[in-house]
Fold these 2 entries.
Entry 1:
Amino acid sequence: PWWNPSDFDWVQPLEEGAPIIQKELELQSETRSQNKELFKGDSNVQTLMGSGWTAFRLQRMGEWNEENSAKFPLTTKLVKALKIPLAVRGVMFAKQEPGSGVQPHSDGRNFILTCHLGLRVPRQDANNGDRQADDETGCWIKVADEKRQWENGKAIVFDTSFTHSTGNFTDDERLVLIIDFWHPDLSEKERQALEFVYDARNKFESGKAKEID
């Protein structure tokens, strides 16, 4: 369920670029109204993930969202330069509102891994240090019953096919950059087959697939 981030050579330069990403995110959401506008998308996914979770997508299923990427040119340039084998959900900013969380779930996709880069992580309550078993304190993510915390500028890597959940029981919102990438144990042909399937799905959903009489 949990992977060592240092197993992937692109993680360290991603962490080194965290201040650039954080700065762009701050500029795009300086006011409450800007923040709300930025994270208003993904309504269908938001319903599934819970009312306190919202996302802003830069890349999905192999295609970069030009309008969204234009708001984050430095972040987009950085991620592209790292040559990460992006997969399925691709790249997005995800926000968790105070006092909310994502219920335990699995996406069933054991052919991808997910990286979270902490960008704005609420300060943990030192008084809760002995209460890690309590799911209604602190800001955390739990994967396969192991709970961990995000850190600003640091990455975590895990397998979302394992049951996972999150909680943000602090007074501040939590913001991370999510990057989905192909599982390193896939063969080249397996990866090509999956890329073909998801490319077809993306073209169908976006209306780019040609009609067949």
Entry 2:
Amino acid sequence: MKKEMLEALKASIPVMMGYIVLGMAFGILLESKGYNWIYALLMSVFIYAGSIQFVAIQLLTTGATFIHAAMMTLLINARHLVYGLSMLKKFNNFKKLKSYMIFSLTDETYSLLVGVKTPKDCNENWFYFFISFFNQCYWIIGSLIGSLIGSLLTINTTGLDFAMTALFIVIVLEQLLTSSKHHYTYLGFIISLVCLMIFGKDAFLIPAMIGIIMGLSFMYKGEQEHV
């Protein structure tokens, strides 16, 4: 498996550069709220969902209810339902590793698994596994480094919680530039804007996510009927 590990390491370098920096932002922000490196480690190992980990900091500090936290987690990560459906056939061949592959399917990992070509003489399953595993390791390392920095230094954390939002903006811009189909993106923008105007900035997120999921479902169903 050495060849698969080496090739996966090379393929995951772009994610490494982003995940270590974002993980550090998460660790610093978590430490600034009074949660030490143990929380950073446990959350990055067992939750491992960048956006919801940033949201979880706010949920922890504001005393959110279990139902509120569960709804936010479900809606924010609902896009993974789409990812999962498109990866079902590939993951069926992973046997014992299947559960981990599903768990570790983040936005960036999904992009790599879909876009990367398995190098010659490499076992595809092990190659994909190590990409997923290395990506999570990068996030864990970044969050621990950030937690350590936050415990040693007094840092102004203003704006750190925007790090994940900035990453999503970059991903959306890249998709707009490289994809020929933009109707899904426009749908998300329009529904979010309408919900923002109706519900206000403090309450628009959940209605917007519900609207986007329903809209995407209808559009996907319509496209399948015309195939």
